[in-house]
Design goal:
By secondary structure, the protein is an alpha/beta fold. The strands form three sheets. A seven-stranded mixed sheet has the order 2-8-7-6-5-3-4, sandwiched between helices. Strands 9-12-11 form a three-stranded antiparallel sheet, covered by helices on one side. Strands 1-10 form a two-stranded parallel ribbon.
Protein backbone atom coordinates (compact mmCIF):
# COMPACT_ATOMS: atom_id res chain seq x y z
CA UNK A 1 0.00 0.00 0.00
CA UNK A 2 2.92 2.39 0.60
CA UNK A 3 3.61 2.64 -3.15
CA UNK A 4 -0.09 3.36 -3.79
CA UNK A 5 -0.18 6.03 -1.09
CA UNK A 6 2.27 8.08 -3.17
CA UNK A 7 -0.57 8.66 -5.66
CA UNK A 8 -2.26 10.96 -3.12
CA UNK A 9 -0.26 14.23 -2.89
CA UNK A 10 -2.32 15.58 0.01
CA UNK A 11 -0.80 12.88 2.21
CA UNK A 12 2.59 14.59 1.94
CA UNK A 13 1.20 17.36 4.13
CA UNK A 14 -1.64 15.89 6.15
CA UNK A 15 -2.99 12.83 7.88
CA UNK A 16 -6.30 12.60 6.04
CA UNK A 17 -8.82 11.25 8.54
CA UNK A 18 -11.85 12.72 6.79
CA UNK A 19 -12.92 10.35 4.03
CA UNK A 20 -16.37 10.15 5.67
CA UNK A 21 -16.72 13.79 4.59
CA UNK A 22 -14.99 13.63 1.23
CA UNK A 23 -12.62 11.26 -0.54
CA UNK A 24 -9.37 12.63 -1.94
CA UNK A 25 -7.97 13.01 -5.45
CA UNK A 26 -5.21 10.74 -6.76
CA UNK A 27 -2.75 11.34 -9.57
CA UNK A 28 -4.11 8.93 -12.16
CA UNK A 29 -7.67 10.25 -11.78
CA UNK A 30 -6.40 13.79 -12.32
CA UNK A 31 -4.53 12.58 -15.42
CA UNK A 32 -7.70 10.95 -16.76
CA UNK A 33 -9.83 14.02 -16.10
CA UNK A 34 -7.33 16.34 -17.78
CA UNK A 35 -7.20 14.11 -20.85
CA UNK A 36 -11.01 13.98 -20.94
CA UNK A 37 -11.33 17.76 -20.86
CA UNK A 38 -8.60 18.23 -23.43
CA UNK A 39 -10.51 15.91 -25.78
CA UNK A 40 -13.66 17.94 -25.09
CA UNK A 41 -11.77 21.19 -25.72
CA UNK A 42 -10.61 19.96 -29.12
CA UNK A 43 -13.65 17.91 -30.11
CA UNK A 44 -16.70 19.73 -28.77
CA UNK A 45 -19.94 17.93 -29.56
CA UNK A 46 -18.10 15.32 -31.63
CA UNK A 47 -16.31 14.18 -28.50
CA UNK A 48 -19.33 14.45 -26.20
CA UNK A 49 -21.68 12.49 -28.46
CA UNK A 50 -19.13 9.75 -28.99
CA UNK A 51 -18.51 9.79 -25.25
CA UNK A 52 -22.03 8.56 -24.53
CA UNK A 53 -20.64 5.03 -24.77
CA UNK A 54 -18.63 5.90 -21.66
CA UNK A 55 -21.87 6.17 -19.69
CA UNK A 56 -22.84 2.60 -20.60
CA UNK A 57 -19.30 1.42 -19.86
CA UNK A 58 -19.66 3.01 -16.43
CA UNK A 59 -22.95 1.20 -15.85
CA UNK A 60 -21.27 -2.11 -16.72
CA UNK A 61 -18.34 -1.35 -14.43
CA UNK A 62 -20.65 -0.55 -11.50
CA UNK A 63 -22.60 -3.76 -12.10
CA UNK A 64 -19.44 -5.86 -12.25
CA UNK A 65 -17.86 -4.17 -9.22
CA UNK A 66 -20.86 -4.86 -6.98
CA UNK A 67 -22.25 -7.95 -8.75
CA UNK A 68 -25.54 -6.45 -9.88
CA UNK A 69 -27.31 -7.20 -13.14
CA UNK A 70 -26.33 -4.37 -15.46
CA UNK A 71 -29.95 -3.66 -16.44
CA UNK A 72 -30.65 -3.00 -12.75
CA UNK A 73 -27.99 -0.31 -12.34
CA UNK A 74 -29.18 3.31 -12.36
CA UNK A 75 -26.61 6.10 -12.60
CA UNK A 76 -27.49 9.11 -10.46
CA UNK A 77 -25.85 12.44 -9.67
CA UNK A 78 -26.14 11.74 -5.92
CA UNK A 79 -28.04 9.45 -3.61
CA UNK A 80 -30.25 12.24 -2.25
CA UNK A 81 -31.84 12.69 -5.67
CA UNK A 82 -32.03 8.93 -6.15
CA UNK A 83 -34.00 8.30 -2.97
CA UNK A 84 -36.38 11.17 -3.68
CA UNK A 85 -37.16 9.80 -7.15
CA UNK A 86 -37.63 6.31 -5.72
CA UNK A 87 -39.98 7.27 -2.91
CA UNK A 88 -42.28 9.25 -5.18
CA UNK A 89 -43.34 5.86 -6.51
CA UNK A 90 -43.74 3.97 -3.22
CA UNK A 91 -47.22 3.42 -1.75
CA UNK A 92 -47.68 5.75 1.25
CA UNK A 93 -49.50 3.00 3.15
CA UNK A 94 -46.19 1.29 3.87
CA UNK A 95 -44.99 1.19 7.46
CA UNK A 96 -41.37 2.30 7.49
CA UNK A 97 -38.59 1.71 10.02
CA UNK A 98 -35.70 4.19 10.15
CA UNK A 99 -32.82 4.66 12.57
CA UNK A 100 -32.69 7.69 14.84
CA UNK A 101 -29.96 10.01 13.64
CA UNK A 102 -29.44 8.23 10.34
CA UNK A 103 -28.29 10.32 7.39
CA UNK A 104 -30.86 13.07 6.64
CA UNK A 105 -30.93 12.33 2.91
CA UNK A 106 -32.22 8.88 3.75
CA UNK A 107 -34.61 9.73 6.61
CA UNK A 108 -36.03 13.06 5.47
CA UNK A 109 -37.50 11.85 2.14
CA UNK A 110 -39.58 9.29 4.06
CA UNK A 111 -40.58 11.74 6.78
CA UNK A 112 -41.62 14.43 4.29
CA UNK A 113 -43.97 12.18 2.32
CA UNK A 114 -46.41 11.11 4.99
CA UNK A 115 -45.30 7.51 5.48
CA UNK A 116 -46.09 5.80 8.79
CA UNK A 117 -42.56 6.19 10.14
CA UNK A 118 -41.10 4.38 13.16
CA UNK A 119 -37.62 4.76 14.62
CA UNK A 120 -35.13 2.33 16.15
CA UNK A 121 -32.72 3.71 18.72
CA UNK A 122 -28.95 3.42 18.33
CA UNK A 123 -28.38 4.15 21.99
CA UNK A 124 -30.74 1.81 23.85
CA UNK A 125 -29.94 -1.89 24.09
CA UNK A 126 -28.67 -3.84 21.09
CA UNK A 127 -29.53 -2.15 17.81
CA UNK A 128 -30.26 -5.36 15.93
CA UNK A 129 -32.62 -6.51 18.69
CA UNK A 130 -34.43 -3.18 18.53
CA UNK A 131 -34.84 -3.44 14.78
CA UNK A 132 -36.11 -7.01 14.95
CA UNK A 133 -38.59 -6.22 17.74
CA UNK A 134 -40.11 -3.21 15.96
CA UNK A 135 -40.44 -5.06 12.64
CA UNK A 136 -42.14 -7.98 14.36
CA UNK A 137 -44.46 -6.02 16.63
CA UNK A 138 -45.45 -3.12 14.39
CA UNK A 139 -45.87 -4.84 11.05
CA UNK A 140 -43.07 -2.93 9.34
CA UNK A 141 -43.01 -3.36 5.56
CA UNK A 142 -39.97 -1.19 4.70
CA UNK A 143 -36.62 -1.01 6.49
CA UNK A 144 -34.48 1.91 5.29
CA UNK A 145 -31.02 2.04 6.78
CA UNK A 146 -27.46 3.17 6.16
CA UNK A 147 -25.08 0.23 6.25
CA UNK A 148 -22.58 2.43 8.09
CA UNK A 149 -23.82 5.30 10.22
CA UNK A 150 -22.40 8.68 9.25
CA UNK A 151 -22.10 10.10 12.78
CA UNK A 152 -20.42 7.31 14.71
CA UNK A 153 -19.52 4.57 12.22
CA UNK A 154 -21.82 1.86 13.62
CA UNK A 155 -22.06 -0.82 10.96
CA UNK A 156 -25.07 -3.03 10.31
CA UNK A 157 -23.91 -6.56 9.64
CA UNK A 158 -25.10 -7.90 6.30
CA UNK A 159 -25.68 -11.33 7.87
CA UNK A 160 -28.20 -9.73 10.22
CA UNK A 161 -30.10 -8.35 7.23
CA UNK A 162 -30.11 -11.85 5.71
CA UNK A 163 -31.66 -13.24 8.89
CA UNK A 164 -34.30 -10.51 8.82
CA UNK A 165 -35.11 -11.30 5.22
CA UNK A 166 -35.38 -14.98 6.00
CA UNK A 167 -37.84 -14.35 8.82
CA UNK A 168 -39.72 -11.53 7.06
CA UNK A 169 -39.47 -12.36 3.34
CA UNK A 170 -41.86 -9.57 2.32
CA UNK A 171 -39.79 -6.91 4.07
CA UNK A 172 -38.42 -4.37 1.60
CA UNK A 173 -34.85 -3.43 2.57
CA UNK A 174 -33.54 -0.13 1.23
CA UNK A 175 -29.96 0.72 2.10
CA UNK A 176 -27.67 3.72 1.78
CA UNK A 177 -24.15 2.55 1.02
CA UNK A 178 -22.45 5.94 0.78
CA UNK A 179 -20.35 5.37 3.93
CA UNK A 180 -19.85 1.68 3.11
CA UNK A 181 -19.24 1.06 -0.58
CA UNK A 182 -15.52 0.92 -1.23
CA UNK A 183 -14.56 -0.34 2.22
CA UNK A 184 -15.01 -4.07 1.65
CA UNK A 185 -16.00 -6.55 -1.02
CA UNK A 186 -19.76 -6.38 -1.52
CA UNK A 187 -21.94 -8.78 -3.51
CA UNK A 188 -25.31 -7.13 -4.09
CA UNK A 189 -27.04 -10.16 -5.59
CA UNK A 190 -26.00 -12.34 -2.64
CA UNK A 191 -27.13 -9.75 -0.10
CA UNK A 192 -30.58 -9.33 1.44
CA UNK A 193 -30.75 -5.72 0.28
CA UNK A 194 -33.44 -4.96 -2.29
CA UNK A 195 -32.37 -1.43 -3.18
CA UNK A 196 -28.96 0.10 -2.54
CA UNK A 197 -28.06 3.70 -3.30
CA UNK A 198 -24.74 5.45 -2.87
CA UNK A 199 -22.95 8.66 -3.71
CA UNK A 200 -19.42 7.87 -4.85
CA UNK A 201 -17.42 10.88 -3.69
CA UNK A 202 -16.38 9.38 -0.35
CA UNK A 203 -14.86 5.90 -0.06
CA UNK A 204 -15.04 5.24 -3.81
CA UNK A 205 -12.89 8.33 -4.48
CA UNK A 206 -14.83 9.29 -7.61
CA UNK A 207 -15.38 13.01 -6.98
CA UNK A 208 -18.65 14.92 -7.14
CA UNK A 209 -21.71 14.46 -9.30
CA UNK A 210 -21.91 10.69 -9.53
CA UNK A 211 -23.46 7.75 -7.75
CA UNK A 212 -25.64 4.75 -8.44
CA UNK A 213 -28.65 2.74 -7.36
CA UNK A 214 -28.84 -1.04 -7.54
CA UNK A 215 -32.09 -3.01 -7.69
CA UNK A 216 -33.22 -6.60 -7.40
CA UNK A 217 -35.57 -7.67 -10.19
CA UNK A 218 -38.47 -8.48 -7.92
CA UNK A 219 -38.64 -5.09 -6.17
CA UNK A 220 -39.58 -3.05 -9.23
CA UNK A 221 -43.25 -3.95 -8.77
CA UNK A 222 -43.22 -2.03 -5.47
CA UNK A 223 -42.61 1.28 -7.23
CA UNK A 224 -44.70 3.23 -9.72
CA UNK A 225 -42.28 5.87 -10.94
CA UNK A 226 -43.20 8.93 -12.97
CA UNK A 227 -39.88 10.72 -13.37
CA UNK A 228 -39.01 10.89 -17.05
CA UNK A 229 -37.17 12.91 -19.67
CA UNK A 230 -35.61 12.76 -23.10
CA UNK A 231 -32.62 10.79 -21.83
CA UNK A 232 -34.94 8.15 -20.34
CA UNK A 233 -35.83 7.12 -23.87
CA UNK A 234 -32.21 7.44 -25.06
CA UNK A 235 -33.34 10.34 -27.22
CA UNK A 236 -35.87 8.31 -29.19
CA UNK A 237 -39.27 10.08 -29.26
CA UNK A 238 -41.15 6.86 -30.05
CA UNK A 239 -39.84 5.29 -26.83
CA UNK A 240 -41.57 7.84 -24.60
CA UNK A 241 -43.36 5.10 -22.64
CA UNK A 242 -41.10 2.16 -23.44
CA UNK A 243 -37.98 2.45 -21.34
CA UNK A 244 -36.43 0.39 -18.56
CA UNK A 245 -37.13 0.93 -14.85
CA UNK A 246 -33.67 2.36 -14.13
CA UNK A 247 -34.08 5.05 -16.78
CA UNK A 248 -36.60 6.81 -14.54
CA UNK A 249 -33.50 7.84 -12.58
CA UNK A 250 -31.76 9.21 -15.68
CA UNK A 251 -34.24 11.70 -17.21
CA UNK A 252 -31.54 14.14 -18.34
CA UNK A 253 -28.02 13.94 -19.74
CA UNK A 254 -25.27 12.38 -17.62
CA UNK A 255 -21.92 14.13 -17.50
CA UNK A 256 -19.10 12.10 -19.03
CA UNK A 257 -16.50 13.74 -16.79
CA UNK A 258 -18.36 12.83 -13.58
CA UNK A 259 -19.39 9.32 -14.57
CA UNK A 260 -16.12 8.63 -16.34
CA UNK A 261 -14.45 9.51 -13.03
CA UNK A 262 -16.65 6.90 -11.34
CA UNK A 263 -15.58 4.28 -13.85
CA UNK A 264 -11.92 5.25 -13.51
CA UNK A 265 -12.07 5.02 -9.72
CA UNK A 266 -13.80 1.63 -9.71
CA UNK A 267 -11.15 0.39 -12.15
CA UNK A 268 -8.46 1.87 -9.90
CA UNK A 269 -9.79 0.15 -6.77
CA UNK A 270 -10.02 -3.10 -8.73
CA UNK A 271 -6.39 -2.69 -9.81
CA UNK A 272 -5.31 -2.24 -6.19
CA UNK A 273 -7.44 -5.25 -5.21
CA UNK A 274 -10.77 -5.08 -3.40
CA UNK A 275 -9.71 -7.86 -1.03
CA UNK A 276 -6.45 -6.04 -0.19
CA UNK A 277 -8.34 -2.81 0.48
CA UNK A 278 -10.76 -4.65 2.75
CA UNK A 279 -7.92 -6.29 4.69
CA UNK A 280 -6.09 -2.98 5.13
CA UNK A 281 -9.20 -1.17 6.29
CA UNK A 282 -10.00 -3.95 8.77
CA UNK A 283 -6.49 -3.74 10.22
CA UNK A 284 -6.75 0.02 10.58
CA UNK A 285 -10.22 -0.20 12.08
CA UNK A 286 -9.31 -2.87 14.60
CA UNK A 287 -6.23 -0.94 15.71
CA UNK A 288 -8.06 2.37 16.03
CA UNK A 289 -10.98 0.74 17.85
CA UNK A 290 -8.62 -0.82 20.42
CA UNK A 291 -6.66 2.39 20.99
CA UNK A 292 -9.71 4.66 21.23
CA UNK A 293 -11.37 2.18 23.59
CA UNK A 294 -8.33 2.34 25.90
CA UNK A 295 -8.56 6.12 25.91
CA UNK A 296 -12.26 6.00 26.78
CA UNK A 297 -13.19 8.41 24.00
CA UNK A 298 -15.84 6.26 22.29
CA UNK A 299 -19.51 6.17 23.24
CA UNK A 300 -20.64 3.07 25.13
CA UNK A 301 -22.90 1.95 22.29
CA UNK A 302 -19.90 1.67 19.98
CA UNK A 303 -17.61 -0.02 22.50
CA UNK A 304 -20.15 -2.79 23.13
CA UNK A 305 -20.37 -3.81 19.47
CA UNK A 306 -18.43 -6.80 18.21
CA UNK A 307 -17.35 -5.15 14.94
CA UNK A 308 -17.09 -1.63 13.65
CA UNK A 309 -16.23 0.43 10.57
CA UNK A 310 -13.30 2.85 10.33
CA UNK A 311 -15.47 5.86 11.20
CA UNK A 312 -15.12 6.96 14.83
CA UNK A 313 -16.75 9.81 16.70
CA UNK A 314 -14.53 10.56 19.69
CA UNK A 315 -15.33 12.66 22.71
CA UNK A 316 -13.65 16.01 22.27
CA UNK A 317 -14.15 19.75 22.52
CA UNK A 318 -12.94 22.66 20.40
CA UNK A 319 -9.52 22.52 22.09
CA UNK A 320 -8.95 18.94 20.97
CA UNK A 321 -10.24 19.64 17.48
CA UNK A 322 -7.86 22.59 17.19
CA UNK A 323 -4.99 20.42 18.45
CA UNK A 324 -5.71 17.79 15.81
CA UNK A 325 -5.92 20.31 12.99
CA UNK A 326 -2.78 22.10 14.22
CA UNK A 327 -0.99 18.76 13.94
CA UNK A 328 -2.02 18.45 10.28
CA UNK A 329 -4.79 15.93 10.98
CA UNK A 330 -7.85 16.62 8.83
CA UNK A 331 -11.09 15.56 10.52
CA UNK A 332 -14.61 16.88 11.18
CA UNK A 333 -16.73 18.05 14.08
CA UNK A 334 -19.92 16.03 14.00
CA UNK A 335 -22.66 15.83 16.62
CA UNK A 336 -21.16 16.17 20.09
CA UNK A 337 -17.69 15.00 19.12
CA UNK A 338 -14.96 14.78 16.54
CA UNK A 339 -15.30 12.34 13.66
CA UNK A 340 -12.22 10.55 12.39
CA UNK A 341 -12.40 8.23 9.39
CA UNK A 342 -9.60 6.08 7.97
CA UNK A 343 -9.34 4.76 4.41
CA UNK A 344 -6.69 2.43 2.97
CA UNK A 345 -4.26 5.33 2.39
CA UNK A 346 -3.93 5.85 6.15
CA UNK A 347 -1.24 3.90 8.06
CA UNK A 348 -0.94 2.54 11.58
CA UNK A 349 1.77 5.15 12.11
CA UNK A 350 -0.75 7.86 11.22
CA UNK A 351 -3.26 6.52 13.73
CA UNK A 352 -0.56 6.39 16.42
CA UNK A 353 0.03 10.11 15.89
CA UNK A 354 -3.70 10.77 16.18
CA UNK A 355 -3.77 8.82 19.45
CA UNK A 356 -0.76 10.75 20.78
CA UNK A 357 -2.42 14.10 20.05
CA UNK A 358 -5.60 12.95 21.82
CA UNK A 359 -3.59 11.80 24.87
CA UNK A 360 -1.78 15.12 25.13
CA UNK A 361 -4.90 17.25 24.79
CA UNK A 362 -7.58 15.34 26.73
Amino acid sequence: MLKIIKEFPILNQYIYANTAAYGIMYDSLLDWRQEHDLDYLLGGSNFKLKGLSLIEDTRKTVGNFFNCTIDNVALIQNVSLGFNVLLEGLDKNNKVLLLEGDFPSLNWPFESRGFDVNFASLKEGILEDNIHSIIKNKGISVLAISIVQWLNGIKIELDFLKKLKSEFPDLLIIADGTQYCGTEVFDFEASAIDVLGASAYKWLLAGSGNGFMLFKDEVKEHFKLNTTGFNSSAGVIENKNKFDFVKHFEPGHLDTLSFGSLKRSLDYLTEIGKEDIEATIKELGDYAFAEFSKLGVLEDTVVKRTSHSTIFNIKGNQKLFDALTNNAIICSQRGDGIRLSFHFYITIKNIKKVVDVIKKNS
